[in-house]
Structures are given as structure tokens and as C-alpha cells.
Amino acid sequence: KLTQIVFGHLDVVTCLARSESYIGGDCYVLSGSRDATLLLWYWNGKHSSIGENPG
């Protein structure tokens, strides 16, 4: 089930990694792409979605 689409990379995403989860399931997700970029995303565990970084 598709729940969210996020944009940032200009080519195919080839790898993902996540940090340890914080209270509530929040964590950071790092994505890497064939476009030679890394993007850091904030995962909101409460809403199960990529969200705004609270810090």
C-alpha cells in the first residue's frame, strides 16, 4: 500500500539505511542514489511518514 511519495533524488534510489529509533519510533533515514547524492530524511514514527525534523 503506497502511503507517501517524497521527491529529492534525480535518479534511481539504490540504498537505504536508518538510525536507531527514538521514543515513539522516530528515526533518520539515509537514501543513496545513482545520481551520486545522499539525502537524510526524518521518519515520524507516530504518523509512519517522512516528516519535518523536530530539531
Number of helices: 0
Helix residue percentage: under 10%
Shape: globular
Low-confidence stretches: none
**Biggest β-sheet, characterized?**
4 strands, antiparallel
Structural class: mainly beta
Radius of gyration: 12 Å
Mean pLDDT: 89
Order of helices and strands: EEEE
Count all strands and give the number: 4
Percent of residues in β-strands: 35-45%
- Spatial order of the strands forming the largest sheet: 1-2-3-4
Roughly how many Å apart are the termini? 30 Å
Helices and strands in order:
Elements: E1 13-18, E2 27-33, E3 38-44, E4 49-51
Antiparallel strand pairs: 1-2, 2-3, 3-4
Model description:
A hairpin with a 4-residue loop joins strand 2 (27-33) and strand 3 (38-44). The chain contains no helices and four strands. The relative contact order is 0.27. It is globular. It is an all-beta fold. The chain has a four-stranded antiparallel sheet, with no helix packed on it.
Q: Which characteristics define this entry?
A:
single chain, 55 residues, mainly beta, 4-stranded antiparallel β-sheet, 4 strands, 42% strand, Neurobeachin
Short overview:
This protein has strands at 13-18, 27-33, 38-44, 49-51.
